[in-house]
Amino acid sequence: MADFTSIPDHGLSWLEASGDHADIVLSTRVRLARNLQGHAFGPRARVNDREAVLKQFRQSTEKAASLRGGTLIDLPEVAVRTRRILLERRLVTRDLLGDDESGPPQGTAVHLSGLEALSVMVNEEDHLRVQSLLSGLRIEEAWRLVDRLDEELGRELPYAYHHEFGFLTSCPTNVGSGMRASVFMHLPGLVLTKEIGKVLQGLGQVGLTFRGLYGEGSEVVGNFFQVSNQTTLGKTEEDLVDHLDKVVRQVIQYELQARQVLLRDARGVTEDKIWRAYGLLRYARSLSFEELMNLLSGVRLGLSLKLLPGLRVYTLNKMMIFTQPAHLEEAAGHDLTPTESDAHRAAFVRRILAAEGEVSPDDAASAEGESSDGLEPR
Amino acid sequence: MSDMVCDNCGSTDAVVHLTQIVDNQMSTHRLCEKCAAEKGLEAAPEPVNFPLTDFLAQMGSDSTPGSDEPQSGCPFCGLTFADFRDTGRLGCPQCYETFSTQLQRLLRRVHGGTQHVGKIYLPPDPSASDLERRLDGLRRKLNRAVEAEDFERAAELRDEIRSLEPA
Question: Which end of chain B, N or C, is surrounded by fewer C-beta atoms within 10 Å?
Fold first, then answer.
């Protein structure tokens, strides 16, 4: 069982709702794909390749200042639920965990740093996936953190690098910088005003792409979109970062305009949607994760528009993570059937909202005297 | 993804997830594009993923086997070009040399070019040109840090440049 308590923020500092536009931009992630010379890439790597990669990485962590005080988790060694919790916290990918029956192959690991929101996945599709995950819109800062760690690791490790193609990766769509910078955005205004299609299409025209909650191939749930750079070769990392930042700020402006349109043309309907969402969350006895995400989207919009006073973005962010199946099971101390899971989810949400106190339009309740929200992992 | 069955017509290429909440009852339907359109639903735009497999399939069709497609596999990992076309994944760093002609064409289409211009990696045993390229990259970063008035970073970069510059 991995001990999450040894990680100061339990790997969740990206939920803290700091950083620019934190009500619209949940988090910023920058990851670099790196491979080591002399070993087959992930999909063709044999056990001895993976073990050799992990061994070299383990040695390099002792010298990498950015990783000091962190924890290296050997994924095959930890309980299934712990792995699912890591996935739900977006610290590992589904690919890294292998298929359900056989689990993660020998040599797969994740290193969580002690101080910063840095982590390294070992033996995924690429030997190393070095990433930083920050709260809010902080692309430049996330890039600088991950760049520094990459420099530290690069001094110790023989990276696979080509004079023309740059950093070599398993998939040629990542080659060059190996960098994918992505921003996790909540865009209900654009969805409700039906402008989202145009915006997403526009992203494609300026070299960006979008995905759902859990990365490639995943669905868009609760009006959350992950926007990232599409190409990785032929531009400097700084240019890619600048470009993404500029476009994301533009999308935020569109989203804010769409919200003003909603308030101007459909204030009654919008307010009703938001209060219904809050009401369901506050009193429902069973909630699927998807339904929860859609209701949270409404409440989050209400909070941004200052129609729901007294709630905090941080509370909503944490609710998204702690209501996922493995987190609910961890809190319950045993496995849950889907029906039980829906009931536990609803109970958890009711408790958190009750702890936040009454939210009423007539009572501009301040977030004063922030009580313990009971959200800490056990 | 490919074998998602449409709840309406049973075809295997459902692309739309429809989640409805009616009278507090939530239901989820999977629909193919045609049925979704018939139900008056605008298909949410699909994530614009790389049409990498399309590119790869095309590369296979416009060259008859044996013309310019390498017949032998990668000497290091044994991956053949046909393997790559199937999976979209290369086998090892050496594959980039083995299939460099085909990859250059592919990279031009995917990224618009083939020359990496970002971070320069300095191998443990660098040649003079490795050093020069690395120094160019660091000077570029230094200018940027100074422009951004990030003097702490600039100082670090200056130290690093000094440590690499020939005495």
Answer: C
Contact between B129 and B121 under an 8 Å Cβ cutoff? The reply is no
Q: Are residues B100 and B141 in the same domain?
A: no
Q: Which residues of chain A have pLDDT under 70?
A: 1-11, 114-116, 213-220, 360-378
- Based on the domain organization, do B31 and B67 belong to the same domain? no
Strands B25-32 and B14-22: antiparallel
Cβ of residue A210 closer than 8 Å to a chain B Cβ:
yes
Per-residue pLDDT of B18-69, as tens digits, reads 555 444 455 566 666 666 655 555 444 444 445 566 666 666 554 444 456 7
Q: Cβ contact (<8 Å) for B77 and A232?
A: no
**Which positions in chain A touch B49 (Cβ < 8 Å)?**
209, 216-217
Backbone dihedral angles phi then psi of residue A27, each to the nearest 5 degrees:
-155, 160
Q: Give the pLDDT confidence score for residue B145 in this predicted structure.
A: 86
- Same domain flag for B59 and B97: yes
Six-digit token string for A235: 């531009």
A37 touches chain B (CB under 8 A): yes
Q: How far apart are the first and last CA of chain A?
A: 13
Task: Report the number of distinct structural domains present in chain B.
Answer: 3
Interface of A with B in 177-196 (CB under 8 A): 177, 179, 194, 196
Instruction: Looking at the structure, tell me whether residues B56 and B103 fall in a common domain.
Output: yes
Burial of B97 (C-beta count, 10 Å sphere; 0-12/13-18/19+): middle
- B56 and B40 housed in the same domain: no
Q: Is residue B123 part of a domain?
A: no
Instruction: Write the ipTM.
Output: 0.83
**Residue length of chain A:** 378
Residues of chain B with C-beta less than 8 angstroms from the C-beta of A43: 87, 89, 91
Query: Domain containing B34: what range?
Result: 1-45
Gap between the Cα atoms of B14 and B156, Å rounded: 54
With contacts defined as CB-CB under 8 Å, which chain A residues touch B92?
Answer: 39-41, 44
CB contact under 8 A, A291 and B124: no
Q: Are residues B18 and B58 in the same domain?
A: no
H helices of A176-236, in order, are: 188-192, 196-205
Same domain for B98 and B80: yes
Classify residue B117: in a domain, yes or no: no
Q: Is residue B122 part of a domain?
A: no
Q: Is the pLDDT of residue B1 over 80?
A: no
Considering the domain boundaries, does residue B121 fall inside one? no
Q: How many residues does chain B have?
A: 167
For residue A211, the Cα-to-chain-centroid distance in whole angstroms is 12
User: Are A165 and B88 within 8 A, CB to CB?
Assistant: no
Q: Are residues B58 and B107 in the same domain?
A: yes
Give the one of B45, B52, B111 whose C-beta lies nearest to A231's C-beta. Answer: B111
